[in-house]
Amino acid sequence: MSVDVTGAAWDGQRWAARVSLAAAALAGLLPLAYGGLGGVLLLAAGLAGAAVTAAALWWTLTRRGPERWLAAVVAVVTPTLLVVLFAVTLGWVLLLSLALWTVAVSSGRYALRSTGRLPRRTKEHRARPVERPFLIMNPRSGGGKVERFALKEKAEGLGARVVLLDPEEHQDVTALARAAVAEGADLLGVAGGDGTQALVAAVAAEHDLPFLVISAGTRNHFAMDLGLDRTDPSTCLDALTDGVELHVDLGFAGGHPFVNNASFGAYAAVVQSPAYRDDKIGTTLELLPDLLTRQRGPRLTARVGDTTLDGPQAVLVSNNAYRTGDPAGLGRRRRLDSGRLGVLGVKVDSAAEAAALLLAPVPQGLVVLSAREAVVDADRTEIEVGVDGEALVLPTPVHCRIAPGALRVRVPRRRPGVPVEQPRLNWRRLRKLAATAGRG
Fold it and tell me: What ranges in 293-426 are assigned the alpha helix state H?
């Protein structure tokens, strides 16, 4: 989308691009000029150290016993020594270089932001009043947030019917939601983890009812991407009195709904272990060596459009794509209404490939795709799948699809977690902006 830019704004845009390019060049050249040949050797040492660190991390995950601990020591010591080496050798030059890089990033983003080419935000729709909201709350979720923030009492004070799950007894939340709909509920909501959110969200989507997310889980990834306040879940209840609707997508893996993602391969196999909940780190370190070296677990094949991934150790199918290429945005999704699944595939078979995964501009071991459908198959009739963190075993092949705009999420009008969208740095576009003369 293009916008009309005044002459002053256009000049500011051009000069911001020029400042960004100049600062980036100085940030890279200053340490080399100051150190001379030593600066070049220091750069080479930095690249080599990064490669050694990546390789050591791979050995830490794929070895056991003394070899693992030795590799772990190398993975910690190598970057520490590099930081000390750079600080001692460059001193104030390193600090100045970091400051110049900060200027380059901020100026570049300002220049690109002023072009008006920001990613589209999810459209807000008017929310109709509800009379019979129904909420399911898990008192154990998030370390007891339901009780700590008095969510049940506050929700009931706003006219909602609340059902607390019994920690000592398994309850079918899908059945509870369907029964509430049959009794006339005109809104469904959940205070709990993302797995519970997904199950009730599917019922809400099926009956075209608004769905309320209360960020009372442990990680609250779905709430984070909706912009909800994860520090105080009671603020999510404001949506009942002053809310808007976001029409977002809903993913399905073999018929099982997910609001975040479905994972296949190493992670999915780890979370299946009965010991995982009590000892996550220990269980992961015990199982990963056999999983990553393919001595255990299925051999996966993922088909995404015309692309086939053969033998990846892990495949992540997400409800909309996760951001890549921006360290500040990793783990977040820019949109929830693109109508497309995100697919990440990882295949690493050696320490050298692990290093390339970290250093290569376009690593062969990482595949990033998007599509409306994806099929994950294996060399066995059933495979482990982590669906929004819930451990399942599904028959193969597992068909993943997305239902565009199927979910009407009711959120507060004011959401402190909605980030200010920053454009991705595009050096080619910055060069074009900097070279432009006169008004555009």
Answer: 351-359
Contacts of residue 411, Cβ cutoff 8 Å, sequence gap at least 6 = 213, 226, 227, 228, 236, 239, 243, 244, 245, 246
The C-alpha atoms of residue 196 and residue 389 are separated, in whole angstroms, by: 10
Sort strands 398-412 and 373-378 into parallel, antiparallel or unpaired: antiparallel
Lowest mean pLDDT among 137-141, 336-340, 434-438: 434-438
- Share above pLDDT 90 across residues of the chain, in percent, rounded to a whole number: 47
Write out the two tokens for 9. Answer: 């704004």
What distance in Å separates the CA atoms of residue 32 and residue 102, rounded to the nearest whole number?
Answer: 18
Mean pLDDT, rounded, for 157-184: 93
**Burial grade of 316 (CB within 10 A; 0-12, 13-18, 19 or more):** buried
Under 8 Å between Cβ of 62 and 349 = no
pLDDT at 384 exceeding the cut of 60? yes
Q: pTM for the complete prediction?
A: 0.82
Task: Yes or no: say if 336 and 121 are a contact pair by the CB < 8 Å rule.
Answer: no
Q: How far is CA 403 from the centre of its chain?
A: 19
- Asked whether the predicted pLDDT for residue 329 surpasses 60, the reply is no
- Across the chain, which distance is largest between two alpha carbons, in Å? 78
Average pLDDT over residues 243-262: 95
